[in-house]
């Protein structure tokens, strides 16, 4: 498990995703204490982020060019590299993951109404409007997300796998009524991705099952290291001039 965190200074790196990641690790350790879990804490300074973006990441993200593509591309690149440290017996030691397969969670939000814009669409257009929104999300996911993430991960000679986009999973989810996959009359942390949350709770991940959605670029704080006035859809000048 790789957990990327960004900071404009050497510390602190206890960003939101780091905190919830550690809590998730504790849940997994309780459920399966015999297994060795490697929780790799990947700390990225602003200087390293800027240097790596200029030298590598900007070319991998291309032809995409938005602020969103920049922040997600950078977060995924550092997470996929897998270089950080793990804590054993209360002490940290340097660690680099040798895993050649990277599992990503892309596709869950798009099919199970995980984004805030899905709540807006549900509020204005009801279940039918939400269904149309989810259909549109899935139809554009290859050009909007998959190419970028695959290139970024492949830069480390690793292969991206997308379990939620497996043909059998997509077919099953498409066969279900939208209200069984999400109930957006319920609050954040409950209603979105309801089907997935129920499965997690059944498996014993009771705390993780009720965490609100937090985008990777915000949870890792990578989106807040530079110009915080930008919108996600803006062209990213850091990519254009890199």
Automatic annotation (TrEMBL):
- Annotated SUPFAM superfamilies: Adenine nucleotide alpha hydrolases-like
Please give the biological process terms from Gene Ontology that the record holds.
asparagine biosynthetic process
InterPro entries the record matches: Asn_synthase, Asn_synthetase_domain, Rossmann-like_a/b/a_fold
Fetch the Pfam families from UniProt: Asn_synthase
Report the CDD domains cross-referenced here: Asn_synthase_B_C
Gene Ontology molecular function, alphabetical: asparagine synthase (glutamine-hydrolyzing) activity
For the Asparagine synthetase domain, which residue ranges apply? 126-223
Q: Which UniProt keywords apply?
A: Amino-acid biosynthesis, Asparagine biosynthesis, Glutamine amidotransferase
Give the superkingdom in one word: Eukaryota
Identify this protein by name.
Asparagine synthetase domain-containing protein 1
- Species assigned in the record: Knipowitschia caucasica
């Amino acid at each position: 498990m790789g957990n990327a965190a960004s900071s404009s200074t050497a510390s602190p790196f206890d960003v939101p995703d780091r905190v919830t990641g550690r809590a998730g690790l504790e849940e997994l350790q309780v459920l399966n204490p015999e297994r060795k879990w490697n929780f790799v804490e990947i700390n990225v300074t602003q200087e390293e982020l800027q240097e790596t973006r200029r030298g590598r990441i900007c070319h991998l993200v291309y032809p995409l060019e938005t602020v969103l593509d920049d922040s997600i591309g950078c977060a995924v690149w550092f997470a996929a590299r897998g270089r950080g440290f793990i804590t054993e017996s209360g002490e940290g030691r340097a660690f680099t993951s040798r895993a050649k397969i990277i599992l990503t969670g892309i596709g869950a939000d798009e099919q199970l109404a995980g984004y805030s814009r899905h709540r807006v669409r549900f509020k204005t257009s009801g279940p039918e409007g939400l269904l149309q929104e989810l259909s549109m999300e899935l139809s554009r996911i290859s050009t909007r997300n998959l190419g970028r993430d695959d290139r970024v991960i492949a830069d480390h000679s690793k292969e991206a796998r997308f379990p939620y986009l497996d043909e059998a999973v997509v077919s099953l989810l498409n066969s279900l009524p939208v209200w069984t996959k999400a109930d957006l009359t319920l609050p954040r942390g409950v209603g979105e991705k309801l089907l997935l949350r129920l499965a997690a709770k059944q498996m014993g991940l009771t705390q993780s099952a009720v965490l609100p959605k937090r985008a990777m670029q915000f949870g890792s704080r990578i989106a807040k290291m530079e110009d915080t006035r930008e919108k996600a859809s803006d062209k990213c000048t850091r990519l254009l001039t890199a």
